[in-house]
Design brief:
The protein has a domain of 146 residues: Metallo-beta-lactamase, Chain A. Helix content is 41%, strand content 21%. It contains 10 helices and 13 strands. The strands form 2 sheets. The protein has a 7-stranded mixed sheet with strand order 1-2-3-4-5-6-7, covered by helices on one side. It has a 6-stranded mixed sheet with strand order 8-9-10-11-12-13. Helix 7 packs antiparallel against helix 8, helix 8 runs antiparallel to helix 9 and helix 9 crosses helix 10. The relative contact order is 0.11. Bound molecules: zinc ion (ZN).
């Protein structure tokens, strides 16, 4: 079913490109998607202190965390070699002579797990199912874990309690969020952003499990919320993001109920748009990327609600 919809989308883009002037499709892509990923406070790097124990490093639209413990540093998600190289410079400058004791992967996705070798960690921790996915794809640059974990796991490293919270089938079934109770901080990977809409409907998202995971995290006691992309904020930002995602789903569900599943009626896309867009625009029109990502997000929500994922 997904393939049929994809084929229809690709087909309509090809038909459009044949009838449009040279480069028209490219221009649409650049005008819509590109500004989501680039701009002031997105491009470049920033290394910031969050608490005495926790720092966060941003490289372009990616963000990870560094934990300062009594036995060395803990890094969650190296992302890629370029980002790790920039982070290593910051660590050598800020914490000279202090090694990376443990590198943790939040989930298996390759954009979060490459480049770890640059940090030369003594230990590498990941969910036990990660290798199943890595084996199926080209995964050069992923440093092999030294320890696999499953389910909720508390890591006590150098006097800091790190609660790795297993989030089930949500954004892959290898996903962890990380709570630092002493610092009142929560770090999430690909779950929640600060006043920013989702990119591409959040790739690899199983919406029912994703909602359950967000609700579980919102029930925790923390003040500072650090997501793995763009800026960081406070707990209310995660609550607002959950509500935004669920508003999108609810409206998409209404649209499918009213106008049928994708592809069965003429003018359907316009009807979906009229059902979802005005309400979302009113509530979230000021968020970063609203206009740029709207079509990608509504297509994801409509297909997801029609198929049940
Ligand atoms: Zn991911």
């Amino acid at each position: 079913m997904k393939r049929i919809i994809l084929a229809l989308l690709v087909g309509s883009i090809m038909a459009f490109s044949l009838s449009a002037c040279d480069g028209a499709v490219r221009k649409i892509v650049m005008r819509t998607v590109d500004p989501y990923f680039h701009g002031p406070n997105i491009d470049g790097t920033a290394f910031e202190k969050v608490t005495d124990r926790i720092y966060t490093f941003r490289w372009n639209w990616y963000r990870n965390v560094v934990v300062v413990t009594d036995v060395g540093l803990v890094v969650i998600d190296p992302m890629n070699a370029e980002m790790s190289t920039e982070l290593k410079k910051e660590l050598d400058n800020k914490f000279p002579g202090r090694a990376v004791h443990t590198l943790i992967y939040s989930h298996y996705h390759l954009d979060h797990t490459r480049g770890g070798a640059v940090l030369a960690p003594k230990n590498v921790v990941a969910h036990e199912k990660c290798p199943v996915y890595w084996q199926a794809v080209e995964h050069d640059g992923v440093l092999e874990p030294t320890r696999y974990i499953t389910g909720d796991t508390t890591l006590d490293i150098g006097g800091v309690e790190i609660r790795a919270l297993y989030l089930g089938l949500s954004h892959t079934d290898t996903l962890y969020a990380f709570q630092f109770p002493s610092e009142r901080v929560l770090f999430t990977a690909d779950m929640g952003l600060v006043k920013t809409v989702a990119p591409d409907g959040v790739p690899d998202r199983y919406a029912p499990g994703y909602l359950a995971a967000m609700d579980r995290l919102i029930a925790l006691d923390f003040d500072t919320f650090i997501p793995s992309h763009f800026g960081f904020g406070v707990k209310q930002d995660l609550v607002d993001w959950r509500n935004m995602m669920e508003d999108g789903r609810r409206l998409a569900r209404d649209a499918v109920r009213r106008y049928g599943g994708p592809g069965v009626r003429e003018g359907q896309m316009g009807d979906y748009f009229d059902t979802v867009y005005p309400v979302m625009k009113e509530k979230y029109g000021q968020w970063h990327g609203f206009t740029e990502m709207f079509v990608l997000n509504v297509v994801r929500d409509v297909v997801g609600e029609a198929l049940g994922y």
